[in-house]
Every structure is written in C-alpha cells, then in structure tokens.
Amino acid sequence: MSVMEPVPHPVIRRLPKYLVHIQELREEGIEWASSQEIADALGLTSSTVRQDLSHMDLKGISKKGYETAQLEAVLRKVLGADVLHRVVIVGAGHLGRALAEHGAFAERGFDICGLFDQDPGLFGKKFGHAEVINVERLSELAEDVKVDIGIIAVPGQAAQEVAEALVDAGVKAILNLAYKHIHVPEDVTVVDARIMESLQELAYVLGTSRKR
Amino acid sequence: MSVMEPVPHPVIRRLPKYLVHIQELREEGIEWASSQEIADALGLTSSTVRQDLSHMDLKGISKKGYETAQLEAVLRKVLGADVLHRVVIVGAGHLGRALAEHGAFAERGFDICGLFDQDPGLFGKKFGHAEVINVERLSELAEDVKVDIGIIAVPGQAAQEVAEALVDAGVKAILNLAYKHIHVPEDVTVVDARIMESLQELAYVLGTSRKR
DNA sequence: TAGATTGTTAATCGATTAACAATC
DNA sequence: TAGATTGTTAATCGATTAACAATC
Questions:
Q1: Residue nearest to nucleotide C6 (CA to C1')
Q2: Domain containing A183 — which CATH number?
Q3: Which of A46, A191, A202, B201 could crosslink A35 through cysteines, CB 3.0-4.6 Å?
Q4: What range defines the domain where residue A42 resides?
Q5: Which residue among B78, B102, B130 closes a domain?
Q6: Measured between alpha carbons, how far is A96 from A116 in angstroms, rounded to an integer?
Q7: Residues A153-199 pLDDT 10s
Q8: Three-state secondary structure along B77-93?
Q9: What is the DSSP letter of A29?
C-alpha cells in the first residue's frame, strides 16, 4: 500500500492478469469483486490476491471486497497503461511483422514507432502502420524520439548484436523474443518471452506423463 | 540424477536455455563446459547450474566440467526434442500465421499438423505448410491423428471456448497465447505465454525508474 | 602433488499459504 | 447483531546460494 516499496517480481507478473480480469468484470457492470472471486477466475488463492493487492494504493472493504473501478484505475496506473510507450521492433520476419500488425498493442499504450531489418528487400514495406527501415538507422530514430522499449525479434545469432545496438541507442527496456540469452548493462531491464521454450516445457510434461 | 524424481518447475524452464547454449558450444567444437562457464553465458550462478544438472542423468568430471555431447543428448532426451510432437494452432490471425510459417518449430520436433479458424474467408489458405481449416472440424482431425499440443492464438473472449474444444478433442497440453486465464481439467497442462504481459512488465519497470 | 571443479548438504532467502483479529 | 471479508502477521514451503569434502 505504501507508495515506494518495491513490488516483488512475481507480483508484478500477476498484475496484468488482474487488470484484464477486472476490465472484464467492469464491462459486465460488476462493481465489487472479492479476493476469492478474483482468485477463482485466475487460478490463485484468495490469500495471494490479498497479499498482492496490499502492494497497491487501494483499500478493500470488508464484506464487499474491492471496488472494480478503483482497482482498474490503480492497476492501470502502476502498469503504466495510461502512458504512451514508444516501442521499436528489430526483425521484420514472421514474428516481427505479426507484432507490428497486431492491433492490441496500440490499444494498451504501446506505439510501434519503428520496425527494423537488415534485408534491403524489405525496406519501405508496410506492416501495420510501421514501415521497415534499415536497422543501421536505429540510432537516428532514437535521436529524434525517445524509444522506451525495444523488441528483439531476430534469429538467435543476431540477438546480442541487436541488443547492443538498442543499448547504444539509449533503450532501457528490452523484450527478447530471440532464442538466446543476451547480456546488457545493469541499468537495462530484459524480459524474455520465448514461445519455443514454452513449447519445450510442454514437451517435457508430455514426456514424463507418457512414461507412467 | 535418479531417473524418476520430479524435476522442479523452475529447473524445467531453464533446461531449454541450457540446450540452446550447449548446442552452440558444440557447433564451435567445444567438448567440455564447466558449471561456471554455463552460468556466465546464461546469467545464472554455477551453484544453480550444478543443482539443475544434478536432476539429469549425467555425471560431470572434476576439473573438466560436463561433456557437451553427453549434456546435449541428455537435455534433448528429457525435453523430448527427438520425439515428434503434433501441434495444432487455433486462430489464424497474425500471430497464428506467424507461428505456422515459423520454420524453427519443425526443426525442433514440433510439427504443425493443423491451423484452425472460424472465418470461412480463410479456409483453404496456406501458411507455412498448413492450410486453414474450419475450427469445427478440430475433433475430426483429432480422431485421425493424436494431437499432442494445442496452441490457443485467438482473442481473449474466445479462449475458454477453444480450450474446451481442445480438451474435448483429447489434447493434454495447451499453450495459451490469449490474454485470458483458461480453466481446464486437472490432467491437462497449460503454459501461458503472453507478449502483452511481458510488455506490461517492462512498462512497470519503466514507470518506477521514471519516478526516481 | 596441487589445484580446479564436481556433487551434495546446509544456510539463506523469498514467496505462498494459513490463520485470525479488525471491521464493515 | 451475525457473518463475510479484509489486512496483516506468522508458518510453511520451496528455490537459490554458499560451503566444502570428494575427486579427477
């Protein structure tokens, strides 16, 4: 509840889930939600929900729970959903293009302001409202507009190189979709998101269940 | 090291990272890797690496480390990389198409054997080597071939419905890319992978650093 | 042999869950 | 009032890190 205490990482990762669910409840016209109801919907325990929300600047009310309008506002604020984030995507392969064309990002405050690749055959092509630009011109763009987030959507071998280009351009937050760990300075935050790893996780589970 | 003890979840999620790194080392002709070397490359501690690998059926050697060939083999085995996994994708939007067209899955033992959508305008169109099929015909396909993994790549509102169709079709492992928690029976494993949530996590970090 | 590195036990750290007094 | 639900403390659980004897 106190404003400046650090929110633990596992909690941060759950906040977007709360936000989505609460927005749904509001669309249905529901004004109050108890920790138990939220927990059931998201596959958590009510205890976890209360602990998590205790980090937010918000008070629940006994017998009623949390006011959905207030909860949505608080979550939007802490997740920066009301701030415009400028995002560049490096790599205009299938995945990079799909992201550029995916409308949901714009809806949630992520503006794709650049789509880069090294293949001249792609330069100038439009995906979503972004045009493919030579990756060498990344730093030029970064001089003009402050880039908040860089998405790495290139093959693994090129990931580290791209990461360094993003860091040089002053980007402090990187989403790494490449199948490779990247090394960055301490003041840069990296979040990994790899569909391949998730698939392999499932493959492991399938393997163990098959044996029994 | 013992064959049948359950491997903790955090360890499982790191195994794919080890595999990728070891494969790289082998391509470079490197035959031995110490826990410290692996840790540095992947941003872990040597202690974590040794603990993780102690779950594998493998022995390191003092002074040399782990034999990369052996380590790769063991990791491939435990992650089921040598088994063909039959995958269906439900949702032929930008993301679903990008996945179907993404060659890296086939390389790693994931065969996209079906791409489904509800939009008749898409039926018959080819992405990668998959043709878009009416989602109502999902169960038909499942009768013919054993589907191991289902990928949900539809908008959030449709996610639960699709999850149920997959469960009905006998799919026991689901990768959920939709922005919505899905409820499934106990014997079905769900892994969530949402780029939006990862972006929001970064947005949170940006928000907190901005304040200081 | 001396030194490096494993495998494993123990210590620490942190997250989740349980419990319950306070409160509406 | 009685009952439901919060906010918070304490207990539990599990993962990571540290430490070190064993070993090559």
A1: B62
A2: 3.40.50.720
A3: A46
A4: 9-78
A5: B78
A6: 9
A7: 999 999 999 999 999 999 999 999 999 999 999 999 999 999 999 99
A8: HHCCCCCCEEEEEECCC
A9: T
